[in-house]
Amino acid sequence: MSASLESRQGLLLDNLESFLEEGQDTGHMRPGYEGFARVLRRVAETEHQSCLLLTSREKPGELVPLEGSRAPVREPVTLSELRAMLVMPGPSGELLEAIDGLRQRSLIERGQHSGSFTLQPVVLEYVTTRLVAEVSGEIAQGGLARLIQHGLSQAHTRDYVRRTQERLLLAPVLACLLSVLLGPAQVDELLRSLLDQLRQRALEAQGYGPANLVALLHMLRGNLRGLDLSHLSLRGVSLQGIELQDTTLAGSLIQEAVFTEAFDAINGLAISSNGEYWAASSRRGEVRVWEAGGQTLHRIWQAHTERVWSLAFSPDGRMLASGSWDGLVKLWEVTSGMLVWSGRHTGNINSVAFAPDGSRLASASYDSTVKLWDVVAGRLHQTLTGHTERVHRVTWSPDGRLLASGGYEKTIWLWDVEQNGYRGTLQGHTDSVIALAFTPDSRSLLSSGDSTLRLWDIASGRSIRVLQGNVGALFDVDWSPDGAHLVSGGSDKLVTISDAIDGTSSYVLRGHGGLVFGVGWSPDGIRLASSSWDTTIRLWNPATGVSLQVLRATDDPITFFCGVAWSPDGQRLASSTYLNLPGVLVWDVSVGSPIWRSLGYPTPIRRVAWSPDGRWLAGGGDNGELYVWDANDGTVLQRLVGHQGPIKSVAWSPDGTRLVSAGLGWPRQRERRVVCLGCTTRGTCAYHCGASQDNLCGGLGYERGAWRYVGQWGQ
């Protein structure tokens, strides 16, 4: 090699990928071949007049840091990948025609894989230079067009490609802005003002603009702390290893993004009293603890076998308590993650709370009890009984003398801890109590439920102030058979019947203790069904508003019902279950018991729909699969695959020959799929087929706190 560098020679290394690790896609050399990496580095770093030509299907990782600034990486893309990157994809034929025109002019060349292509090197360099100039000039003038149309850095590309994009696109743009605006502070202010402009546009009209501006801000600042990123479409943004403290993402749409680590849905959250430790729990029973004010992951462990709804730090921050749906309350040492002790309820645990002095721990459960535990000894101190329904929340007064608990029975119980007994009840809520908090002087209590916030005077037991709230979300709607009324259910736990002409409420049906996720009129219009996460299905008389019947899954007391649908003859009722045992139940309404059940699916089922002849039942799962059952016995007849996200709604055509599904995500394949209708990014919530089987005539989507009419499609 020394002789090759001293004289002018040409070397060829063919099929270099044979020296690289198989199946790793890292560009690292196989064990025993590290010497070739040293050779490559020496050739790249030493001044000489020779030429080394490499051919390889994969780039050696050792060469990535040594690439020149004028050597853009050409990563071939397929037609489908290119179309997916477009902000507003047009017809596939137009894109194919444009690609063919570029090929005829020799501006692009074929990639290694079939159907892939890339720009010619000279063209790529020209386009890169032109794009940098236009984007930087446009930003300096307060423009947005190029920022919206083009993603300057793609989160899901290979690491070396993304680093090259940052070096050849983002860095030059930022350098131009700094030279024009004479300082980082002015550039920072300009970029944030452009984010404010984009926030005024609809999410689907923001394109790559927010992601590009966020990438530039991160390159300028080194972090993204304290930014307002609310109500922005962050498409293809890389947030890996980026500090986001005090940054708000409320109402934002984050898609095709990369985070530091994968995380599950968070059910519980707690912060130690000094702010040093942060803790979060997941629906899979996992607990994570961060230190340094939530910046560094300290420890992660599998704490429970079911979802963990509640976490609480001890007052000194040394212990962490967790309560789970597996019926266990556990105490952990924060620094080591070691289990100190565990106790048991006979039902789900939804709330845990330490006494102000840290000597006792309270836990509230679906078994209708509150238990007090001796923290040091790890044994049960007392069981507080009196609740007649599931207890959802428990909290201590700051002086440590009182304990308040509330749940599904709408009554708040007060316990005198010093006297080891019952103190009194607070009554006034018309629905479940979901949150409790004492004022700092321990004289008053705040409670929330039934869309109200109430302030109670502890001494007198009176409600001294009521703040009225509004419904947060609607989950289902249905027309009456005569079209004169509309029924809806939502997060306020109410079933509302409205006049279809003027929208005024005819009846507000109260009785559910949880979110109402399904509503449906019987075919004859005489009865109304509603399903809820309070583990019940209720049948109502819509003319009088009277509750006629309550259906429960007696073998599983925590079955959360989601969708509900009447059979065409009105004799059977189908319901989908969401959390504990996902699946479908079909009820005989006359006797109030299930005819058959198909439970234990790997995915929650949101919605169900009967075929017009009553022979089949269809339901959509969160895994994007559509199930078709035999309505007589629950046999699975078909599993239709097409959606990439949860299926939110299903509907049959009037003749029963076609089935429509709507939900999140675009289809992966076309088999068995007649047509895919892409709607709002938040997902569609309800569909109804019109009188003609060739028309899908109604769609409602819930987005940003309001219902949106999606549209009407013909054949």
CATH fold-level assignment of the largest domain: Methylamine Dehydrogenase, Chain H
Radius of gyration over C-alpha positions, nearest whole angstrom: 31 Å
N- and C-termini, Cα separation: 70 Å
**Sequence stretches where pLDDT stays below 50 over 5 or more residues:** 665-715
Determine the fraction of residues in helical runs and give it as a percent range.
10-25%
Assess the beta-strand content as a share of residues: 35-45%
Describe the structure.
- The chain is an alpha+beta fold and 715 residues long.
- It has four domains: 2-66, no CATH class; 118-255, no CATH class; 266-468, Methylamine Dehydrogenase, Chain H, CATH 2.130.10.10; 474-709, YVTN repeat-like/Quinoprotein amine dehydrogenase (Methylamine Dehydrogenase, Chain H), CATH 2.130.10.10.
- Helices cover 16% and strands 37% of the residues.
- It has nine helices and 48 strands.
- The strands form 14 sheets. A four-stranded antiparallel beta sheet has the order 8-9-10-11, with no helix packed on it.
- Helix 7 (159-181) crosses helix 9 (209-221).
- The longest helix has 23 residues, at 159-181.
- The N and C termini lie far apart (70 Å).
- Mean pLDDT is 81; it is low at 665-715.
